[in-house]
């Protein structure tokens, strides 16, 4: 039924997308394997898939190995949307680059629980939402993240900074993950400002939060004031 009702055409020749991935709940918020025995009263139907039960059972994506526990939990706490979470947790460069830059600014990796809090969550969510809304994204059909595809071959789509009139950017890994394409140096600077502003906002909020008497919840202090203030 699934194969009949859904388009089976591959988007990229070298990437296999399992047709048995789907929603596991009526609210369409949880995505997983429709053939797994937990979905079928104990009956394992995974041998009907392209990879088969044994490969599915033992396979873990690269993010499982390369992202730290704190980075994974932070992403889970920030992204409530299954689609955005899937885009971000599988983009190792994007996640590690952002959390590394934030950690450098605040001199530690913030606790994953910190990312549950309204103000912090909103800031970080705005960054990872660039995965969908990035204004400098290339819409070429053969682009996917930092890669471009040519039939069964794929390579990293490097940014020609010299053509733009500079040596490079400190946000290169982020720009690649966001499939960036810049027409001129001005666009590059605007993109850098967007990323830097987000990191600065997080660091400033984190600094305020660490001051005794100041607490942050949904952008407000514990006293309910719309501005941060020290306790008396």
Structure, described:
With 232 residues, the chain is mainly alpha-helical. It folds into two domains: 2-59, no CATH class; 67-209, no CATH class. Helices cover 43% and strands 7% of the residues. The protein has helices at residues 2-5, 52-58, 62-66, 69-78, 82-89, 92-106, 118-128, 130-133, 161-164, 172-177, 185-209; strands at residues 21-23, 31-33, 143-144, 147-150, 153-156. The strands form two sheets. It has a three-stranded antiparallel β-sheet, with no helix packed on it. Strands 1-2 form a two-stranded antiparallel sheet. α7 (118-128) packs antiparallel against α11. The chain is globular, with a radius of gyration of 21 Å. The model is unreliable at 212-232 (pLDDT under 50).
Condensed summary:
By secondary structure, the chain is mainly alpha-helical. It has helices spanning 2-5, 52-58, 62-66, 69-78, 82-89, 92-106, 118-128, 130-133, 161-164, 172-177, 185-209; strands spanning 21-23, 31-33, 143-144, 147-150, 153-156.
């Amino acid at each position: 039924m699934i194969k009949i009702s859904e388009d089976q055409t591959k988007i990229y020749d070298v990437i296999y997308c399992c047709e048995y991935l789907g929603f596991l709940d009526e609210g369409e918020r949880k995505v997983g394997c429709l053939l797994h025995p937990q979905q079928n009263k104990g009956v394992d139907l995974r041998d009907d898939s392209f990879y088969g039960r044994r490969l599915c059972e033992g396979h873990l994506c690269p993010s499982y190995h390369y992202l730290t526990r704190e980075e994974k939990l932070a992403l889970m706490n920030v992204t409530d949307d299954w689609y955005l979470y899937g885009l971000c947790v599988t983009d190792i460069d994007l996640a590690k680059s952002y959390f590394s830059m934030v950690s450098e600014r605040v001199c530690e990796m913030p606790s994953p629980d910190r990312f549950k809090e309204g103000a912090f969550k909103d800031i970080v969510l705005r960054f990872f939402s660039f995965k969908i809304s990035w204004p400098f994204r290339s819409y070429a059909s053969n682009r996917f993240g930092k890669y471009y595809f040519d039939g069964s071959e794929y390579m990293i789509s490097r940014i020609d900074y010299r053509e733009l009139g500079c040596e490079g950017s400190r946000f290169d890994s982020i720009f690649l993950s966001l499939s960036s394409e810049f027409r001129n140096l001005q666009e590059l600077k605007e993109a850098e400002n967007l990323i830097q502003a987000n990191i600065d906002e997080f660091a400033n909020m984190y600094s305020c939060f660490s001051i005794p008497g100041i607490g942050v919840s949904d952008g407000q202090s514990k006293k309910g004031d719309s501005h941060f203030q020290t306790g008396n």
